[in-house]
């Protein structure tokens, strides 16, 4: 029998963050991961630490995202000190490029609404083309303008993933791969998980299995109706520095490659790429930055987002199965700092974070509400 204080099902960015934070809080943690055969959203992350426009219709999500972005420097410094891995966090602010005046007007309306709800510290600027070009000289003439917020940034998600694993291992977390969950049972305050042909037990259990949470949550009295949404991205060869700010379409990584994205497709669990979609992404990228027309593309990939009906996270403790929690979201990078520093300590026995009261999975059981993606 394998015993721990806490079992975390799912070893992606969310699961690794929670495991690290719980271990720092003193728990003996085991992570059960299905391995790379799983629909791992973490392998396809764009790498943004992003705040602007998130939470339109639900300002608590804007506050939650902002708090995590503000805690990111602390997380980055801790990971570097603990592992020696620089996750290449840069927070110069971010740009949302607009290709029409209508889009500019919509963006202004949304950001003003968010500032009114969140407070004056939620800062943004509207940049016309001339102002935008002062900051981004290579922007194309078809771009009408952009919105800028100083709250945004980006990181290297692959280095982040490696650093989280390394740091968690140094804190005593055990990662068990090839452990797709076969069954969960609960008796006498102990969860028993059958995974990878073995049996694992602990008094606490976190479901951080991404899209797998949809089926696993009801086993412990929780509700997590997450569904896949496909995003496709193009990657260029390494280029000279051309872009000092991350944008909603294009960002240059610390290694010089340029990520061009992305798509939003409801195609079930199909994580393949489509030439016509990639062609549209390439055209938009070139329209934003004409210099990309001469760049060689080195790869393309697609991955499945983990989306709730309203696009916001799900954090909840089970009332019928005390000790069980569900933690799932789309923004595993942006919210990593909150998951390490606020969600994990709560799971370990600390105070409930008041900031997550609006994010219970039970909100989707209200049949009188209609949900639209406000992420």
TrEMBL record:
<dbReference type="InterPro" id="IPR036188">
    <property type="entry name" value="FAD/NAD-bd_sf"/>
</dbReference>
<dbReference type="GO" id="GO:0016491">
    <property type="term" value="F:oxidoreductase activity"/>
</dbReference>
<keyword id="KW-0560">Oxidoreductase</keyword>
<dbReference type="GO" id="GO:0005737">
    <property type="term" value="C:cytoplasm"/>
</dbReference>
<dbReference type="InterPro" id="IPR006076">
    <property type="entry name" value="FAD-dep_OxRdtase"/>
</dbReference>
<dbReference type="Pfam" id="PF01266">
    <property type="entry name" value="DAO"/>
</dbReference>
<protein>
    <submittedName>
        <fullName>FAD-binding oxidoreductase</fullName>
    </submittedName>
</protein>
<feature type="domain" description="FAD dependent oxidoreductase">
    <location>
        <begin position="5"/>
        <end position="337"/>
    </location>
</feature>
């Amino acid at each position: 029998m394998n015993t721990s204080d806490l079992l975390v099902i799912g070893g992606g960015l969310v699961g690794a963050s929670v495991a690290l934070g719980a271990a720092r809080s003193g728990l003996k943690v085991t992570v059960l991961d299905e391995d790379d055969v799983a629909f791992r959203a973490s392998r396809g992350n764009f790498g943004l630490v992003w705040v602007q426009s998130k939470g339109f219709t639900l300002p608590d999500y804007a506050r939650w995202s902002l708090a995590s972005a503000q805690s990111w420097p602390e997380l980055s410094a801790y990971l570097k000190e603990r592992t020696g891995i620089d996750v290449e966090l840069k927070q110069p602010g971010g740009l949302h490029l607009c290709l029409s005046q209508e889009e500019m007007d919509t963006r202004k309306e949304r950001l003003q609404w968010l500032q009114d709800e969140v407070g004056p510290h939620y800062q943004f600027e509207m940049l016309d083309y001339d102002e935008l070009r002062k900051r981004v000289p290579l922007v194309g003439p078809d771009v009408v303008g952009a919105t800028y917020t100083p709250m945004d940034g980006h990181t290297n998600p692959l280095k982040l993933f490696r650093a989280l694993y390394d740091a968690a291992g140094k804190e005593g977390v055990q990662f068990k791969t090839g452990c797709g969950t076969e069954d969960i049972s609960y008796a006498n305050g102990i969860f028993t998980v059958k995974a990878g042909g073995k049996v694992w037990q602990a008094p606490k259990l976190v479901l951080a299995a991404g899209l797998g949470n949809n089926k696993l949550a009801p086993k412990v009295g929780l509700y997590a109706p997450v569904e896949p949404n496909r995003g496709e991205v193009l990657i260029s060869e390494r280029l000279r520095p051309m872009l000092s700010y991350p944008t909603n379409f294009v960002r240059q990584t610390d290694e010089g490659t340029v990520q061009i994205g992305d798509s939003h497709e409801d195609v079930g669990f199909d994580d393949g790429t489509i030439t016509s979609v990639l062609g549209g992404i390439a055209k938009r990228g070139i329209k934003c930055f004409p210099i990309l027309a001469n760049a060689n593309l080195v790869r393309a990939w697609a991955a499945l987002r983990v989306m709730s009906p309203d696009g916001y996270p799900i954090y909840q403790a089970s009332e019928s199965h005390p000790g069980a929690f569900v933690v799932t979201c789309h923004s595993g990078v942006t919210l990593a700092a909150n998951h390490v520093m606020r969600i994990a300590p709560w799971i370990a026995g600390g105070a409930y974070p008041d900031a997550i009261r609006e994010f219970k999975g039970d909100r989707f059981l209200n049949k009188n509400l209609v949900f639209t993606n406000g992420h």
